[in-house]
Amino acid sequence: MIQLYYAATPNGLKVRIFLEEAGLPYHIVPVNLSIGDQSRPEFVAIAPNGRIPAIVDHSPAMRDQPLSIFESGAILLYLADKAGMFMPEEPSRRLEVLQWLFCQMAGLGPMAGQIGHFNVYATETLPYAIERYRVETAGLYGVLDKRLADRPFIVEDYSIADMACFPWIVPHMAHGQNLREFPNLHRWFEEIRVRPAVIRTYGDSKDVYTGRTLQSADCATLGSQSEG
After folding, report:
1. What is the 3-state secondary structure (H, E, C) of 179-203?
2. Which of 22, 80, 88, 149 has its CA at a distance of 20 to 30 angstroms from the CA of residue 55?
3. What CATH number is attached to the domain comprising 153?
4. Are 72 and 164 in contact (CB under 8 A)?
5. Banded pLDDT at 211 (limits 50, 70, 90)
């Protein structure tokens, strides 16, 4: 059994998507970010950076004792190797997946996170910050759009690279983006959002921008909401 320390942020959602896709047994340990659960000593003992997600694998292959892992990219890599799924064995393809995973971790996540903050959470409107991060995020959407022009998924077959990026594209409207301006990315998004594991993941999660509980139907209509 895997314990998933979780809140329904994009980084939390991508790990849950993997667990659902792979069919690995897991148990959610909710981490309420609004009341500071992420700073509690018992959580920091698992995730020294005080950020979700984190996991504890109670049956790791590498040792007899439970294994804790933090950082969503590291968790995805660990789980892919554990399950033998969604990560190519061929070295050059594996390297491609790693590059796009790190691209999400270092680029798409931070930039989309900033526009989400300034566009939704900030207590005052800061046009310079909003425009800067909207443009940066649009540029990264464009990189993915170009990559997806001649392949179904980011690295041919569906992989942890797709799982890492998808939850950062779901709130595209809050990020000031119109997916119809990125036709290849839009096509990719439409394919992934209807995967059963993705619908299960979003089916009982609360939207991080509205606080509204998402239903299964919401994930099936995310791509068509008010995009102009």
Report:
1. HHHCHHHHHHHHHHHCCHHHHHHHH
2. 88
3. 1.20.1050.10
4. yes
5. low
